[in-house]
Amino acid sequence: MSRLSTNHEPQNHFMKTKFRYLVTLALLVVGAAPATAQTLLFEDDFNDGVIDTNLWEVFLPLASSSIAEAGGVLRIGHRGWLLSAESMDGLDQDLMIEGEFSPQSSNDSWRTLMYANKAPNGDPHWENTDHLSGTWYGYCCGDPVSVGGSGNIQSPGASGASVGGAWKGFRLITFNGMATWELWDLANPADTVILQTAYSKLPGAGERIIFYNREYSALTLLDNVRVYSGLDCDLNGVLDSTDIASDPGLDCDSNGILDTCDIASDPGLDFDQNGVLDSCECVTSNYCLAAGNSAGTSAIISSQGTLSISTNDFALAVTGAPPLKPGIFFYGANQTQVFLGEGLLCIAPDIQRLQPVVLTDAQGGVVMPIDFTAPPFDAGAFGVTLLSTWNFQFWYRDPLGGPAGFNFSDG
Q: Bigger pLDDT: 162 or 404?
């Protein structure tokens, strides 16, 4: 069943803003279907009124225990256990379980468990078995939240204040010996608790994912369960989402996957093997022709600095122009190649001139820094934005170069 705020992101994700531009020819972007850092193992929205036995096993340790699908949710009562049908064998790290639950009783207590199994002889007291758990306690002490391990899963554990709301979202995440338990109010996602604890685990066979109503007389509603693997693709012991939040440059295309993992999954995404996704690079080359000038050379345009709007250290440069002559850089979205003056105009209208007029140095070179936070780059028809493409050229005076008295660089 769908409800508001199911896509809660308790950890911020930032987008690194870049632009793609053309200095004189075409931008080459080499790409392929994106890799995925997360693999959805299974999900269930409990909407069909029948428990899917391909996904779940039901265990009712007491005569009063119950589990049933009804009204688009799963109803778990009186210590009922819902176990994943498949074991976690071979999936001992990098898992995420997420979903929603709603306690229906004041004395409810809800647990999400990994590396768990049914208690010996059907003992309803879960504490007798190994498990890593994220728990919400509704029966005492300000409704605390905790995360920790038991038995062979040794953990110092962690606890904190609970959240409000009739429906709560949750995540239990494991990665390289760290467990994270996230709990939030679906109606007010800002009301969030995030706990972490280290844990160590001895291997065990046949262990499951289990949802468990801990109290005898309680009823809990469960919905929209999803189980993923592969959340720490670079195996550095830190969630990929945390890595990216700390340094957005690790995910230059903002697809939620570390660039190193994208490239490891598909080396074709880094054609030049420089460790940067080709889709995040501006592959620049010169187009159009630069005619000869009175200096016996041709004016060639290039660029300096990085290609990031946020870094804002980009500059246009020209070499090979006549020395000590005025000139103007200009740019536009469209290419052409038509004779004008003593050279070729390489940009079709509309064209934007850049101020101020610049003067070439004694070697016929000039550099013009560009400020993307200032007009005309910051907004409007000539605003340089993410994924925009632009062509740049340089016009310069050359009285000795021919009757027209001016010429152009290439594009």
A: 404
